[in-house]
């Protein structure tokens, strides 16, 4: 039964990393910004990611597709321009997909401590290991922005609050598990690819934050490494 649950957890985590290569090309809402028809510096890369014809020339259809992607993930200005921030977001998604079912292939996260939650800032990924066994994930996360980066190094979960309220940011932090000062795993309603990032916490989707809550306990290890793109 434990094996079945473990495999189910891994499968759920991997399924969460599926990001569509195509974006609906429906008409933009009336309140949305108008499209920028200029060719961006990452035009070809963005066209390829979105499944568009890769010709390196911005078209009205390209612009609407890029704009839809930007709107979905809160990238501003939402004008359909293939600029650095849009491509950085897409490139992070590609790195997450490439992790597959072996996010710790490079063995950057220590696995000799028993149960441990790993956080890779570079790929914006997290997962839970139990020794060499992958227990859950990998799943996309949203970590600290430039100036309030998620701190790297070895940590331990020291306090948990399922319905935490942040008095600093005046926001709910469901399934909060603190591991370094005010920094914690917790759920958020924002896209995991929403720039610029959090105030230092490791934001997660609700299902993933709930799974972490059920799998982790006070005293469990957390290891944070890498560097978030753009910081």
What does this structure look like?
It is a single chain. With 231 residues, this protein is α+β, with helices and mostly antiparallel strands. The protein folds into two domains: 2-16 and 103-225, L,D-transpeptidase catalytic domain-like; 22-99, no CATH class. The chain has helices at residues 2-15, 43-49, 60-73, 84-99, 206-215, and strands spanning 115-120, 125-130, 133-140, 153-156, 159-166, 171-180, 183-187, 202-204, 221-225. The protein has a five-stranded mixed beta sheet with strand order 3-2-1-9-4. The chain has a four-stranded mixed beta sheet with strand order 5-6-7-8. A hairpin with a 4-residue loop joins strand 1 and strand 2 (125-130). The protein is globular and about 55 Å long. It starts with a helix and ends in a 6-residue tail after the last strand. This is Murein L,D-transpeptidase. Residues 114-225 form the L,D-TPase catalytic domain. InterPro entries: LD-transpeptidase, LD_TPept_cat_dom, PGBD-like_sf, PGBDSf, Transpep_catalytic_dom.
């Amino acid at each position: 039964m434990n094996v079945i649950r473990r495999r189910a957890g891994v499968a759920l985590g991997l399924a969460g990393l599926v990001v569509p290569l195509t974006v609906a090309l429906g008409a933009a809402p009336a309140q949305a910004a108008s499209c920028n028809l200029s060719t961006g510096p990452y035009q070809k890369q963005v066209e390829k990611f979105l499944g568009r014809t890769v010709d390196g020339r911005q078209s009205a259809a390209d612009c609407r597709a890029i704009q839809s992607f930007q709107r979905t993930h809160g990238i501003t200005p939402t004008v359909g321009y293939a600029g650095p921030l849009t491509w950085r977001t897409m490139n992070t998604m590609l790195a997450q997909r490439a992790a597959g079912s072996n996010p710790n292939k490079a063995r950057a996260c220590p696995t000799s401590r028993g149960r441990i939650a790993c956080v890779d800032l570079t790929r914006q990924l997290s997962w839970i290991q139990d020794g060499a066994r992958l227990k859950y994930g990998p799943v996309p996360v949203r970590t600290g922005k430039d100036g309030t980066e998620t701190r790297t190094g070895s940590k331990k979960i020291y306090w948990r609050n399922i319905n935490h309220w942040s008095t600093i940011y005046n926001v709910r932090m469901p399934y909060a598990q603190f591991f370094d000062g005010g920094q914690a795993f917790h759920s958020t309603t924002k896209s995991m690819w929403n720039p610029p990032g959090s105030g230092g916490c490791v934001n997660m989707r609700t299902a993933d934050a709930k799974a972490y809550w059920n799998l982790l306990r006070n005293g469990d290890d957390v290891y944070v490494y890498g560097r978030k793109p753009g910081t």
